[in-house]
Write a structure and sequence with these properties.
The chain has helices at 3-80, 87-90, and strands at 106-110, 120-124, 129-133, 139-146, 161-165. It is of the alpha+beta class. The protein has one domain (3-165). The longest helix has 78 residues, at 3-80.
Length: 166
């Protein structure tokens, strides 16, 4: 073999080694890139879930505030017309029967939580409580009661009627 042929043979022998090391480096870089993207995606998803949960809580609290406000208006109207609520009349009653409107996500009256529903209000006919079921399955319960029986009422409660948390 001539000298130029031996130089070509040496160059050919070296190129695969260079390609292998470059290939390994690019796979390592790709793995780091995927890891970083995965961590960022996980962080973003977690933050989004927290924000959605907080938004649902705020929406539920707004519904509750609206129902309380309508109860206050009803109390004022009844007092203005010479009627009043007796404690026995309101105790264990579905508060939405007294109100003119209902939340859009009100499901109705049930003896137990409706299966497979989330982010809804319903009235539990056994426990006599207004229940909100969150999207994660948690529940909060409220009862229509006379504030005379409570040691504390919600802010702005008037007329002795309130939706008190259980």
């Amino acid at each position: 073999m001539g000298s130029w042929q031996s130089v070509v043979a040496q160059n050919l022998a070296m190129k695969p080694k260079i390609k292998l090391s470059q290939s390994g480096a690019s796979l390592f870089g790709f793995a780091i890139y995927i890891s970083i993207v995965s961590m960022l995606t996980f962080g973003l998803t977690s933050a989004l879930n927290r924000v959605q949960g907080r938004a649902e809580t705020i929406t539920m609290e707004a519904d509750l505030a609206n129902m309380r406000w309508e109860l206050r208006e009803l109390w004022v109207h009844r007092n203005a017309t010479g009627q009043s609520f007796s404690a026995g009349e309101i105790e264990n009653l579905n508060p939405l029967l007294l109100l003119g409107g209902r939340p859009n996500n009100y499901s109705g009256e049930f003896a137990e939580a409706p299966a497979g529903v989330r982010s809804v209000w319903y009235f539990d006919t056994k426990a006599k409580r207004l229940v909100y079921v969150f999207s994660d399955g948690r529940q909060v319960r409220y009862r229509l009661t006379s504030t005379a029986k409570l040691n504390r009422a919600s802010q702005g409660a008037m007329g002795g009627v309130d939706l008190a948390p259980d």
